[in-house]
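BUG: 3D viewer hangs when loading the predicted structure for this chain

Environment: internal workstation, default settings.
Expected: structure renders.
Actual: progress bar stalls at 90%.

Input used:
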Amino acid sequence: MKTGVLLINLGTPDSPSTGDVRKYLREFLMDRRVIDINPVGRWFLINMIIAPFRAPKSAALYQKIWMKEGSPLLIHGLNLKKKLQESLGNDFHVAFGMRYQSPSIQSALDELRKEKVSRIIVFPLYPQYASSSTGSTIEKVMEQVGEWEVTPEMKFISKFHDSIPYLEAVIDSAKAYDHNAYDHVLFSFHGLPERHILKGDAHYGSGECKLGNCCEVATKGNQYCYRANCFQTAIEVAKRLNIPKEKYTIAFQSRLGKDPWIKPYSDHEIIQFAKDGKKKILAFSLSFVADCLETTHEMGTEYHELFREHGGEKIQLVPSLNSNARWVEAVKEMINS
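Structure tokens produced before the viewer hung:
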């Protein structure tokens, strides 16, 4: 009997047109785990304010990163699926889906059901656990499988920020860049509202979250704290690359709205780097395993320009793992562990 592997990433518009981007934003932001406010208020905020006004701007940005074959996130995901299938062999069937838009989680699960797999390994492609990404994805999978008459054995890989195969894949991709040739290293992660972290701590953590140095050490109480997972990822990567603590900064990007998000903020740190006389920065976006709008444009273009505006010279972004050979092997190792 075959084992099914379900790779899942967050999602992407079907095209960089304003209409498709608006459709994507509405599905994404209407998720109660993403914008966790009163449902009526969420509907009004998304459909009357954010989607109408943000969609044209986001569409223009997607047009800048769109590949000839399609969305970068989708293309890298499909390439990973293909290479992983070849590496795992005939005892496995690999499917790929997106939490939002196409290909859907339902279509990927239907593919595995048709193969009559004996069990399914669900692998959300988010290294660090967050309710708004991993939690939402797992919830959707369980909702879909819950409708089946026969539920196969299920295994969920809910986080892998401290997995040795994953860390080794990051190190392998970073070897092309000598951090000693840069004035500083920035580990930038996607941001979250502070309330997401505090709510998670109240439900599963120690109940003593300070949103501070407590994130630097892994404990039972912060094992599902997104901010702690991010700090621990960066610290482990820095250790393996022999980057001293004084030469790197951990920060968070992609804020939305006026509520406080987890700190420090990447754009603020970049401005400060330039003011401090730093000229060359090596940057990692380690909450993404595939290049997308947040890596290619936000970090690779917007932050690079911001740095230059304040006196810096260059931000060099280390590409995401995408579907490179070491990452394929890392995913295989985590699936077989």
